[in-house]
Write a structure and sequence with these properties.
Order of helices and strands: EEEHEHEHEHEHHEEHEHEH
Strand order of the largest sheet: 1-2-4-3-5-6-10-11
Largest sheet: 8 strands, mixed
CATH architecture of the domain at 12-145 and 224-291: 3-Layer(aba) Sandwich
Number of strands: 11
Helix content: 25-40%
Shape: globular
Number of helices: 9
CATH superfamily of the domain at 12-145 and 224-291: Alpha/Beta hydrolase fold, catalytic domain
CATH topology of the domain at 12-145 and 224-291: Rossmann fold
Strand content: 15-25%
CATH class of the domain at 12-145 and 224-291: Alpha Beta
């Protein structure tokens, strides 16, 4: 796939403490000349701050400071002895604590999947903090089929013998959703999702995260965030959908526009859940949206 030519900038990391004693981590990418609104990036369920490095490289060039947080149990943040704390509620408290500890003011939020849920909830409970919201392949209603797929994958095969095996595993699982990603791209994605450990290459999250999803079937009650979405519908929102997404349906994508007429939409061609935010077109769309925020 075509990707933007942005240098891989090395972030600096800052830490803060959760109210139950876990050390949490955020990555900061600083622009040479800050001219735009700060951007807070929140990752997907099992993902980490490395997902945002390509986008951060582009946005810092546009004058934005970019901050990405690792949730508890993921990336550089600490693992908790009780997996039940890997919940939306505990993560929301961690985000609020991080905003205070890191002295972050008004900002835009870019949320991928679960991160978009957190973005909506943050805008709802603290509207003074959020100047705009980018929802990457997530909406107020989640497709049951996609959630069932994710619940069957997460926490399974955590380790790979080497980077090539990790890349091949991702290709086997996701090629149908990302048909334009080539061999180099799968290796690049592997380095975002996996980390080196004493036992080889390992997915960078606590495997017990799978326990939080349980079994997803036709009887499982799924979250309904339409009331939250309606409450924030006056906020500047850019919604991105992967053309092959099995999480954000075409119907929900359309309803979001109906319920929030000012909402901007972008479809990422040849991508599924969730768009990687590597390509130049999507990065430009995000940057144009952010340039209008204050």
């Amino acid at each position: 796939m075509d990707t933007a030519d942005t240098a891989d900038m090395q972030p600096r990391y800052r830490e803060w403490q959760s109210d139950d004693g876990i050390t949490l981590s955020a990555a900061f990418w600083e622009p040479r000349q800050p001219t735009g609104i700060d951007v807070l990036c929140l990752p997907g369920l099992s993902r980490n701050t490395r997902d945002f490095a390509p986008l951060a490289g582009y946005l810092t060039g546009c004058g934005h400071r970019v901050i990405a947080m690792d949730y508890r149990g993921r990336g550089r943040s600490g693992r908790h002895p009780d997996w039940r704390t890997y919940s939306i509620e505990c993560e929301a408290k961690d985000i609020d604590a991080g905003l205070a500890a890191l002295s972050l003011g008004r900002l835009a939020v870019v949320g991928t999947s679960r991160g978009g849920l957190h973005g909506m909830l943050l805008a709802w409970r603290a509207p003074e903090r959020v100047g705009g919201l980018v929802l990457n392949d997530i909406g107020p209603e989640i497709s049951r089929a996609g959630l069932k797929r994710i619940s069957g994958e997460i926490g399974g095969r955590m380790r790979a013998a080497n980077w090539q095996e990790a890349a091949e595993r991702l290709h086997g699982a996701l090629a149908s959703q990302f048909p334009r990603v080539d061999a180099e791209g799968w290796l690049r994605l592997a380095r975002q999702l996996y980390v080196e450990s004493e036992d080889g290459i390992q997915l960078d999250y606590d495997a017990r995260l799978a326990n939080t999803l349980g079994v997803i079937d036709e009887e499982t009650e799924l979250p309904d965030l339409w009331p939250v979405f309606d409450a924030i519908s006056g906020l500047p929102i850019l919604a991105i959908r992967g053309a092959h997404s099995d999480i954000l349906s075409v119907e929900t994508f359309s309803r979001m526009k109906e319920r929030s007429p000012g909402l901007e939409r972008h479809t990422s061609a040849d991508e599924g859940h969730a768009p990687l935010l590597w390509d130049a077109e999507t990065q430009r769309v995000i940057a144009r949206f952010l340039s209008r925020l204050r």
